[in-house]
Amino acid sequence: MSASDRDRPVRPHQAHAASFTHNADEYAAVRPGYPPAAVDLLVPSDAHDVLDLAAGTGKLTEPLVARGLHVVAVEPADGMREQLTARLPQVEVHAGTAERIPLPDASVDAVTVAQAWHWFDEPAAAAEIARVLRPGGTLGIVWNDRDEDVPWVSAYDALLHEAAGPQLARGTYPTLGNAFTDVLRTDVRWEHVLAPEDLVRLAGTRSYALVLPPDEREALLERVRTLVTTHPDLAGLDRVPVPYVTRVYTARRR
Ligand SMILES: C[S@@+](CC[C@H](N)C(=O)[O-])C[C@H]1O[C@@H](n2cnc3c(N)ncnc32)[C@H](O)[C@@H]1O
């Protein structure tokens, strides 16, 4: 993948988006959550009703619920919704997409989108989010990016054909249209500590690996295992601090 390819917004094939449903257990086990400083930014302190859109297995839903917010989750993949309901039985969960949100107009104070905006049809999603938000309500979009300035991270991401960075070009913002204002970006740096084998499992949850034929997938995960056990910065570690730069974008509905 060339540098210019990596900087281009990702508009993935539907098979990649649909792939999440088959690996929801692994996803829930090894994908990172979101640091409290990022959650603080995603939802304003006066919000009450929150939609966690593309909620997946509930990695962001959970800290939102823990803050006492009334959270509704929308997620298209059956396997992800099942994990979410098992984890957070008190949360109202709907099958739906960002382009067709199954909620009434002006029904929430805040919408959160974690690690998923790049799967959306941006104009359609922005219009739907504006519809379900109350005037003055907020949209919070977040990505956990591994810090590719760290050499082993860069090698790991190269194996996965992933830019740790942005599914959006560096320095650009989600396209939200005229319904939104006050668009801001804030970065939060932190580390997610994993066992080396969990770094291999993490690679297996990436959409690139999920859609490979089984033999190619196994070969890829073996290359990741070799990297994780032999890279000079990782060899011999039984816990690996994975450095993240969590990018938070916030905007307000006019
Ligand atoms: C990388 S996961 C993130 C899940 C969760 N928000 C998290 O932080 O762990 C991306 C999620 O987006 C969902 N998704 C894909 N396309 C979508 C769409 N058009 N509308 C809503 N959700 C979508 C997938 O099913 C998947 O659960």
From TrEMBL:
Domain of life: Bacteria
GO biological process: methylation
Pfam families: Methyltransf_11
Keywords linked to the UniProt accession: Methyltransferase, Transferase
InterPro entries, per the entry: Diverse_substrate_MTase, Methyltransf_11, SAM-dependent_MTases_sf
Record carries keyword Transferase: yes
Recorded GO MF terms: methyltransferase activity
Compositional bias segments (type: Basic and acidic residues): 1-10
Methyltransferase type domain ranges (all copies): 51-139
Keyword Metal-binding listed: no
Similarity-based family: Belongs to the methyltransferase superfamily.
Name of the protein in question: Methyltransferase domain-containing protein
